[in-house]
Every structure is written in structure tokens, then in C-alpha cells.
Amino acid sequence: MSCGTPTPIETLYCDHHPWLKGWLRRRVGCVDQAEDLAHDTFIRLLTSERVPSALAEPRAFLTTVAQRLLSNHRRREKLERAYLDALAQAPQAVCWSPEERAIMLETLVELDRLLDGLPAIVRRAFLLSQLDGKTHAQVGEALGISVPTVKRYLVKALQRCYFADLSFTG
After folding, report:
1. Are residues 66 and 133 in the same domain?
2. pLDDT tens sequence across 89-106
3. CA distance 62 to 60
4. Is 29 left (phi over 0), alpha (psi -120 to 50) or beta?
5. pLDDT means per 10 residues in the chain (170 residues)?
6. In angstroms, rounded to a whole number, what is the distance separating the alpha carbons of residues 165 and 114?
7. Could you give the number of structural domains in the chain?
8. Is 46 in contact with 52 (CB distance < 8 Å)?
9. Distance CA 125, CA 123 (A)
10. Distance CA 147, CA 11 (A)
């Protein structure tokens, strides 16, 4: 807290943090997860440059931010479950260390974030090609599209990944 007049986020936190934790607890069913997500909500606000100085509906605003974080959280959980299921089905000869598993999961989460917003068929073509190692013809057959269309989709997905990477380094 600051020594002078509280900032809008400090006021928002003091007035609505307990309510937000309760709202999140009802959605996730876990006190610890609700606390983490409430914390992440206020961290998001502290690091954002787009928080209005005055809010007519502060709880609606907090709900919107928290719902986005909750959606990302659930999406990550779904990815993690799929990853762990794939690991469980892998031959025993494939034995990754906990560090390698964590790196692989983070890579999958980042890839999911990069491909978000692309049409589902473009994402699917990219994943079949890059993760499953299928040829363009095999991808086309699996998706019922032509090889030139597969190539167009792969270029679109690769451009998304490439240009997103440039925005992080520049």
C-alpha cells in the first residue's frame, strides 16, 4: 500500500478481493486455486496499462479479468491432461526427467497460445505436420483437403509463430 491516497487498484483490492476469492471458489471448487486466481487477477491489473482510474461496475470488471484467467487456467489444465495421457501411452523406453517434462509442457502451452485465433483446421494441419510428423499428403488426406491447401495452412501457422517470436525480442 502507498503512504498517500490509495491507488484505484489498491481500493479495488481492499473493497473486492474477498468477494472475488469467493466468486472464484464457487467456480473452481478449491480454495487454494481460487486464491491463486484472485492473486493473478490483481497482478494482471497491476501490470496492465489499461485499467480505468474509476470503475462504475468494479465487480463486473474484476469478473471479466478473472474469467479470462480462469479460461486460460482451464485450457492449460486440459493441455496438461492430454500431455500426461500421451506420456502414459508412450513406450517405456521414453523416460523423460521432470525438467524435460516441464519444458515440453511449457512448449505446448506456448504453442497453443501462438496458434490461438487461427481456424481449427489450420491448427490441426500444423500439429499433424509438426508434432505427428505427417507429410503434406498425409495431412491433406487426414483433413480432406488438397496438398496446396495444406501448404497454405502451414505457411499461415508458421507465420503466426515467427512473427509472434519477433514481437517478443523487439
Report:
1. no
2. 766 656 778 888 888 888
3. 6
4. left
5. 72 92 94 93 86 83 92 82 72 74 82 84 90 90 94 90 57
6. 9
7. 2
8. no
9. 6
10. 57
pTM above 0.70, yes or no: no
Residues 142 and 69 placed together within one structural domain of the fold: no
77/159 same-domain check: no
User: Which residue range forms the structural domain that includes residue 51?
Assistant: 1-94
Give the SS3 label for residue 56: coil
Closest CA to 20 of 36, 5, 8: 36
Q: How far apart are the first and last CA of the chain?
A: 33
Looking at residue 169, what is its pLDDT? 40
Residues sharing a CB contact under 8 Å with residue 136, sequence separation 6 or more, in sequence order: 129, 147, 150, 151, 154
Q: At what angle do helices 147-169 and 120-130 cross, to 10 degrees?
A: 90
Q: How many CB atoms lie within 10 A of CB 23?
A: 19
SS3 54: coil
Among 11, 7, 19, 6, smallest CA distance to 60 is for: 19
What is the SS3 assignment for 142?
Answer: helix
